[in-house]
Amino acid sequence: MKYKIAGILNVLFGIFQVIVMGMFFLVTAPKLSRLYEMTGSGNEGGSWTYPALGIALGVTNVFFGLVNLNVVLKGRKEKYFVLSIIYFLMSFFLMGLISALSAVDTVDPLYKLSSL
What residue ranges are annotated as transmembrane (predicted)? Predict the structure, then answer.
């Protein structure tokens, strides 16, 4: 039962990460890149880096969730269970850090424009 709960948590959180960062990657980042290019504010690739990291974290969470939901891995199931719990907690905190860094990375070039 604990494997299914951990698997469901990992899959749901991973899907959430992929959707949120995917929307930022597909909708917001291209607009920001065009804005930065038009204004010459100097942020060429930064707005793409953090969403890509978030998507990678989400895909890995989904992987660990699917491994926990799989019943074939009977011998190594406890190892993957512990890894998935550690990764879930680590990615939860890393998503907060990535979100904060992404916000700073978004606002900083615009702030530089106003300080010229």
Answer: 7-28, 48-73, 80-104
